[in-house]
Backbone:
């Protein structure tokens, strides 16, 4: 998730709204430590998260006591993210922030001797990702002996972020429970790319459609381009790519 401004903006909004309470719950000793460590963790300069927080501080409906960055109009996407996250509780935002940070800290490949499942295909991988519990372990073949540990934490985070909605149709397929599914835009079984920028949350119907027809994904327009010329565009997004 390196350089992902949208993920960092979610964390910055959380810090803006809840200040020292958020700092403490994320396990940092003070604000300065949080700003520096979070920024560097995501490959940014040490003041990046502070500056982004200041943008949220300056919004008219911000809960922050700080004046914030009022010397320029807020970015359109900052307003959009703040408006969307207003619907999240403190507990939900804390879970999101913690899980995004935890995922970034634990990116390394881990060689393990015993796992629950050994996956050879993308279908195997996504079935396990979407239908096994969070304690499930996935490993992929890497050469003759090594395997790769699959970190499910980012999937859990993104499903929470969209609250069961499909990013394409912007609908919740079931009122009974969250049946949304994670799809790797570039197949994880081939690329081992589990970055947030490579994951989209879909309803079962759109997920099956995309696997059946294998469209190309255009990151500039956030659209799936099908072989027959049809286009399915992302309707809701708070994590793919960078803020404009």
Residues:
């Amino acid at each position: 998730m390196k350089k992902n401004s949208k993920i960092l903006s979610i964390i910055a909004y959380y810090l803006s709204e809840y200040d020292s309470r958020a700092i403490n719950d994320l396990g940092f000793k003070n604000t300065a430590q949080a700003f520096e460590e979070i920024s560097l963790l995501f490959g940014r300069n040490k003041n990046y998260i502070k500056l982004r927080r200041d943008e949220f501080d300056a919004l008219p409906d911000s809960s922050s006591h700080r004046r914030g960055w009022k010397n320029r109009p807020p970015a359109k996407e900052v307003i959009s993210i703040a408006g969307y996250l207003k619907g999240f509780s403190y507990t939900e935002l804390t879970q999101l922030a913690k899980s995004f940070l935890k995922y970034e800290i634990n990116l390394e490949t881990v060689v393990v001797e015993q796992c629950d499942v050994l996956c050879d295909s993308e279908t195997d991988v996504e079935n396990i990702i979407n239908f096994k519990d969070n304690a499930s372990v996935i490993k992929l073949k890497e050469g003759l002996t090594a395997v790769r540990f699959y970190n499910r934490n980012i999937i859990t985070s993104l499903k929470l972020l969209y609250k069961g909605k499909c990013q394409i149709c912007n609908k919740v397929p079931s009122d009974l429970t969250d049946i949304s599914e994670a799809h790797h835009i570039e197949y994880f079984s081939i690329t081992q790319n589990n970055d947030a920028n490579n994951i989209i949350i879909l309803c079962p119907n759109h997920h099956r459609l995309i696997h059946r027809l294998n469209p190309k994904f255009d990151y500039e327009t956030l659209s799936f381009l099908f072989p027959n010329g049809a286009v399915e565009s992302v309707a809701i997004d708070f994590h793919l790519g960078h803020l404009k």
